[in-house]
Design a protein that fits this description.
Number of strands: 8
Oligomer: single chain
Shape: globular
Largest sheet: 8 strands, parallel, barrel
Protein name: Xylose isomerase
Strand order of the largest sheet: 1-2-3-4-5-6-7-8
CATH architecture: Alpha-Beta Barrel
Organism: Zavarzinia aquatilis
Distance between the termini: 13 Å
GO molecular function, one term: isomerase activity
Structural class: alpha/beta
Mean pLDDT: 97
Radius of gyration: 18 Å
CATH class: Alpha Beta
Number of domains: 1
Keywords: Isomerase
CATH superfamily: Divalent-metal-dependent TIM barrel enzymes
Low-confidence stretches: none
InterPro entries: Xyl_isomerase-like_sf
CATH topology: TIM Barrel
C-alpha cells in the first residue's frame, strides 16, 4: 500500500537569533527523530556543499530518510548535488534552478539538460514550484509541463499564492491551473501563504481561510498521487517553515509563532489527509 513519509527541513530548525548560537546539527537531527518525523531534508541554498556533506553521518546514525534541495547555477553545477543525494539515500533531488532564461522556449532546453544529467547519474528530479528560479512564474511552469511531459514537480504552492498575489476566494481559472500542477507533483511541501505573506502562522485565526485552502489542495494532490502510485511507493511531505525573514516577526525581532509546533500541526494534517484521500 502506498505510504506517506513526513520530513522536516534542517533549514527550518534554525533559530537565527542575533547573538544566540544555533543548536549543533547533530542535536537537531536527534530532535527531529524524537519528534517522530521520518526524514530530514538538507538545502544547498542554506548550506554550502561542504557543510551539507558533514550531515551524511547523521542520516546513518539516526536512521532518518534523506532529501536534498539543490540550487544549480549551471547545468553541470547539479552533478555534485546528485552525488550527495546518493550519499544520504535521497529518492530524488528537488531542483530550484538558478539558470533562468526569460522565455519559455529558452527554459525548455535547460530543463531537458538537467533531466539528461540526472538520468546519467540515476537520480530522479523534481522541480520545485519556487520563486526566484526557473519555475518562478506559475504560468510559465504550466507551459513547461505541456512542453516536457517527463517533467515532475515538488509542489510548494505557497510561492505561487504570494507570487501571483492570489486573492481569496480564488478566481475560477486558478483552481484548474492548480489541479494541473498537482497532477504532476510527486512530493509536497508544508507552508501556508496568503497573497501578501509566504509563511503564515498556522494557529492564528486569520490564517484559517488560507489553511483550509491549502489543506484542500494537499488532499487533492494526495488523491491524484495515489491514483498513479505503485503499491510500495512512498510520498514525501516536507514541513518547511523557515526562520526569519520567512517567519513573521514583531517589533522586537522575535517570531510571532512557534514554528516547531506549527510544523507538527501541519504534519498531523498531512497524515490525516493522506488517509482520507
Amino acid at each position: 500500500m502506498p505510504e506517506l513519509a513526513v520530513y522536516q527541513a534542517l533549514w527550518a530548525t534554525e533559530l537565527r537569533l542575533p547573538g544566540v548560537p544555533e543548536t549543533p546539527v547533530g542535536e537537531r537531527f536527534d530532535a527531529v527523530k524524537a519528534a517522530g518525523y521520518e526524514g530530514m531534508a538538507i538545502d544547498l541554498g542554506a548550506l554550502t556543499l561542504e557543510q551539507a556533506k558533514e550531515t551524511v553521518p547523521h542520516f546513518a546514525r539516526t536512521g532518518l530518510g534523506g532529501l536534498l534541495t539543490a540550487f544549480p547555477k549551471s547545468i553541470e553545477d547539479l552533478r555534485p548535488a546528485l552525488h550527495l543525494a546518493k550519499d544520504i539515500g535521497a529518492p530524488f533531488v528537488v531542483v530550484v534552478g538558478q539558470v533562468m532564461p526569460v522565455s519559455v522556449d529558452g527554459m525548455i532546453p535547460v530543463i531537458r539538460d538537467w533531466l539528461r544529467l540526472a538520468a546519467e547519474e540515476g537520480v530522479p528530479l523534481q522541480f520545485e514550484t519556487h520563486r526566484n528560479c526557473i519555475t518562478n512564474d506559475m504560468f510559465a511552469t504550466l507551459q513547461l509541463l505541456d512542453a516536457i511531459p517527463e517533467m515532475r514537480l515538488a509542489a510548494d504552492l505557497s510561492h505561487y499564492v504570494v507570487g501571483r498575489e492570489m486573492t481569496f476566494p480564488l478566481y475560477g481559472e486558478y483552481h484548474g491551473q492548480i489541479t494541473r500542477l498537482l497532477a504532476r507533483s510527486d512530493s509536497f511541501q508544508g507552508r501556508i501563504a496568503s497573497r501578501c505573506q509566504v509563511q503564515l502562522p498556522v494557529q492564528f485565526p486569520q490564517t484559517k481561510p488560507w489553511l483550509d485552502l491549502f489543506l484542500g489542495w494537499w488532499k487533492e494532490g494526495f488523491r491524484l498521487w495515489k491514483q498513479r502510485a505503485g503499491a510500495d511507493e512512498r510520498l514525501i511531505f516536507l514541513c518547511e517553515l523557515g526562520p526569519r525573514d520567512y517567519a513573521i516577526t514583531g517589533a522586537d525581532g522575535l517570531e510571532l509563532s512557534d514554528r516547531a509546533e506549527d510544523a507538527l500541526i501541519l504534519r498531523d494534517h498531512a497524515r490525516r489527509l493522506f488517509a482520507e484521500a
